[in-house]
Amino acid sequence: MSEAYAIIAEKAGGPEVLVKKPLDLSKMKPEAGQVLLRHQAIGLNFIDIYHRSGLYKQDFPANLGCEAAGVIEAVGDKVKGFKAGDRVAIFTSKPGAYATHRIVDASELVALPDDISAETAAAVLLKGMTSWMLAEKCLAHAAIEGEAPKVMVLAAAGGVGSLLIPWLKYLGVTVFAHTSTEEKPAKVKANGADYVTTLPYSDLPDWVRKQNHGEGVHAVLDSVGADSWKSSIASLRKKGLWVVYGNASGPVPALSPLELSKAGSIYTSRPRLIDYVDNSVDLTTASQKLFALLRKNILKVEINQRFPLTEVAKAHQLLESRKTTGSTVLIP
């Protein structure tokens, strides 16, 4: 039998705090409602960095990783709909995917169709369902009347951005995109964005209005946070929607509601995917919509980085420095 192990963060800090810890499979017995999952591929996401760094508070030593795909090895009592040997994927709010094996609640599992590989699922499930949340749920709250929606996407070349832009285009949205380096605009444009820039964040409001006949956009989908929030707000038209769904540059500082009023009575939201898929019906709806768009080739999974799980520290360094494109998977 191959080695069983997990990667944990010994304390809050940089990638150097990640260490390998052996697992004793003889003691990993699923209880009622649980399964033992053998991972075949693990997704790397920016939330893993928030957990490792301590930005998202938790106890240390800490398990990391929220997304994986693999095969069920054993099931506990009262598990319905799944059996040993089934191929599944999981996104969970309880980190612990950085491991060869893991016990999880069966209620959090998504059955994998035969045409979706473990690597694809690990690369796309969290990012893809986040895109579903942003494009199909959050934008429903934007004040859009009588015209096609116009939306700005920040971090447009990243894992979520690479899926979010074609999803928005599928829904008929005009997409304004920002990316951090000169190497990425061509990729973002090829992915469907209508307008792309690498200008400093402070120049975005003027740039948007130059492309858009003097108007701001209906919504800004912002995963950057501290560096971008002022420009995001200033890029909106009156009654626009500012959605903050990440903190790549750090969290947005405390904000008075008067800032939203002064910007034109704008709305804001800080959504969590787990709140949008907190029951089996919504989880199934989101994953099936995601898989359907993959089959139609509307969404394309770009796994541009693969690392052995034992080299996860290197993967964290590249992701944190924004030197990755598309998705990154870890192979146990």
Automatic annotation (TrEMBL):
GO CC aspect terms:
cytosol
**Organism superkingdom:** Bacteria
Q: Name one GO molecular function term.
A: mRNA 3'-UTR AU-rich region binding
A Pfam family recorded for this sequence: ADH_N
Q: Which residues cross the membrane?
A: none
Q: Provide the alphabetized UniProt keywords.
A: NADP, Oxidoreductase
- The chain positions of domain Enoyl reductase (ER) read 13-330
Q: Which Gene3D superfamilies match?
A: Medium-chain alcohol dehydrogenases, catalytic domain, NAD(P)-binding Rossmann-like Domain
Name of the protein: Alcohol dehydrogenase GroES domain protein
Q: Per the UniProt entry, what species is this protein from, by scientific name? A: Zymomonas mobilis subsp. mobilis (strain ATCC 10988 / DSM 424 / LMG 404 / NCIMB 8938 / NRRL B-806 / ZM1)
